[in-house]
Amino acid sequence: MTQIKRSCKQILSPGTNLFVILVTIALILTACSPGEQTPTEYVFDDLGRLVAINGTPERIISLAPSNTEILFALGLEEEVVGVTDWCDYPPEALEKEKVGGYDTPDIEKIVALNPDLILVAYGTPMDVINTMDGLGLTVFGIESTNLDDVLTDIRTVGEVTDREVEAQTLTSQMEGRIEAVIGQTEELEERPRVFYIVWHDPLWTAGSETFIHELIEKAGGINICQNVTGYATVSIEEVVARNPEVIVASEWSFEWAQNVTSLNSTDARQNGRVYQGNDDLVQRPGPRLVDGLEWFAYFIHPEIFEEPESS
Questions:
Q1: Domain span at 155
Q2: Residues 6+ apart with CB under 8 A from 229
Q3: Total domains present in the chain
Q4: Strand 139-141 relative to strand 117-120: parallel, antiparallel, unpaired?
Q5: CATH number for the domain harbouring residue 287
Q6: Please, are residues 205 and 189 in contact by the beta-carbon 8 Å criterion?
Q7: Global pTM?
Q8: Which conformational region is residue 162 in: left (phi greater than 0), alpha (psi within -120 to 50 degrees), or beta?
């Protein structure tokens, strides 16, 4: 039996609606024969592509660390046959065959692994996706921009891999943890000013429309750089003028944030509130974003939240 499904994030234009109608008619006219063993399911991915999923995938390649984390969290570690050079979590992912970077994958190696599903995310160029698609490979894209998207994408991956129950269990657990944090912070009147350091030379931070900004807000803080969009450079003078009460720095910039004299006058340095963050927990759109939220809540409001267990 042929099925057509669409991501709940997919917003179709009137022209696309007509296209879907035509595709549906074509599928009905070319319905599966009685002897067919593996039904075809058509699902819209986050890139707006209608992707044919032929049966339950048994050989999956992940082209993003976040995708790898989702697949392992859904119990698909045995089905994963290839990952990127950057896929390092969970530790078992390091044992998988490497197929290059998410933006420069080794197409020849990918073909040799004979995958029946390639899961891509933000950062994989469309020409690479089109090349793999042209080789007859099944490529499915997910692209998350906030926590709600991450939850939706986990359910979508569960749908196309026949792990819907596991996906529902995982996202329900994540939602419960998110709600537990928000329940403690949404009515707070005192919301400390927070500065996140991505890198220090030059000084890079996270503005609005980033996961880091969303986590800061949900954790009960105010991002002092919410006036910029995405990841951007800022001057040290601007940071000092905005006087952050909490500074969270990436692993690579933590020592600098603790010692640079330019930040001596800030409340964060005066009160010893400079913390080392974990980029993987706050920039990878996967299950561990909730861990990042809980760490931010602890950094910003240690009077309310206990230190989370290490991830």
A1: 56-170
A2: 207, 208, 209
A3: 2
A4: parallel
A5: 3.40.50.1980
A6: no
A7: 0.87
A8: left
